[in-house]
Amino acid sequence: LKFWLRTVAAGNPALCRAATMAAFVVPGGLVTAKSPGVSVPHQVAVEPPTSTASPASTRFLQLGASSVALAALSGRSRQSRQSRQTRRAQPASLEEKRFPVLSRRDAPVGTFPKMPESVHPGVVSGQALVDLLNHAKENGYAIPAVNCVSSSSINACIEAARKMDAPIMIQFSAGGAQFYAGKGLDNTEFHAAIAGAVAGAYHARAVAEQYGVPVILHTDHCAKNLLPWFDGLLEADKRYFERHGEPLFSSHMLDLSEEPLEENVEICVKYLERMA
Predict the structure, then answer these.
(1) What are phi and psi of 121, to 5 degrees?
(2) Under a CB-based contact definition with an 8 Å cutoff, are residues 233 and 268 in contact?
(3) Which residue from 95, 105, 118, 99 is spatially nearest to 244, judged by alpha carbons?
(4) How many Cα neighbours within 13 Å face the side chain of 183?
């Protein structure tokens, strides 16, 4: 911006002085701001430009100066909002934080006064998941499940849960998972959808404990034609379990309601035995 102002003000000493202060300048008006290290009065009169500055240059100067003012106001507004959010939603304590994707540490510490003892900050699975779902059923409250298609949507959901001090369910559909990985990827044999769901799960695990709320990682309806996607997710669960002692995802949904009952039961038995 200083370069623009100096260029426009070339040949006019008054405008050159105003330009080097990087201030909000209105030709013929007042300079009401100053850059660090420059000593100027609170208000400095600026003479109107002489004929050496063309009307077009003057308009360009006004436009650039207005942009500075708008940017400054926008920055102050964002800082104010962030400050209010920080005051409302305090993160978990350092003792309750870890990076489960990168660590072999035991299950995270930290409990919630109104939750079962097994429920902890971060992604829950196994008995903790069962206890959380039973607690919700017994106490008559719902856990929202949100289909996420990007890291931004995951962050927004977990941040909302943090503000409400409530658990949340992050879930992925086959199409949403493919979008997460990038539509430019080849999805032959659902490779892109598998990669996207796994990437989303790792992201959620990396940030969930930092927010300090219980998170359920779930995959949405899997019909018969999506079984290759389901197989890839179970393989990811197995590999994660070998390293961390728990599956990557909390749960999966196998939806074979469109198939004949006999085939539905037969396929479900096969997968339940595999997951046992």
Answers:
(1) -65, 145
(2) no
(3) 105
(4) 3
This model's pTM is above 0.85: no
CA dihedral (112, 115, 119, 122) positive or negative: negative
Q: Are 207 and 216 in contact (CB under 8 A)?
A: no
Q: Which of 213, 156, 206, 148 lies closest to 181 in space, CA to CA?
A: 148
Tens-place pLDDT, residues 90-135: 444 555 455 455 555 455 556 666 889 899 889 999 999 999 999 9
Residue in 131, 165, 186, 220 annotated catalytic = 220
Please return the burial class of 274, using the count of CB atoms within 10 Å of its CB with bins 0-12, 13-18 and 19+.
exposed
| φ, ψ for residue 215, nearest 5 deg | -130, 130
Our answer to whether residue 220 is catalytic in this structure is yes
Q: Phi, psi (5° rounding) for residue 258?
A: -85, -10
Q: What is the 3-state secondary structure (H, E, C) of 146-207?
A: EECCCHHHHHHHHHHHHHHCCCEEEEECHHHHHHHHCCCCCCHHHHHHHHHHHHHHHHHHHH
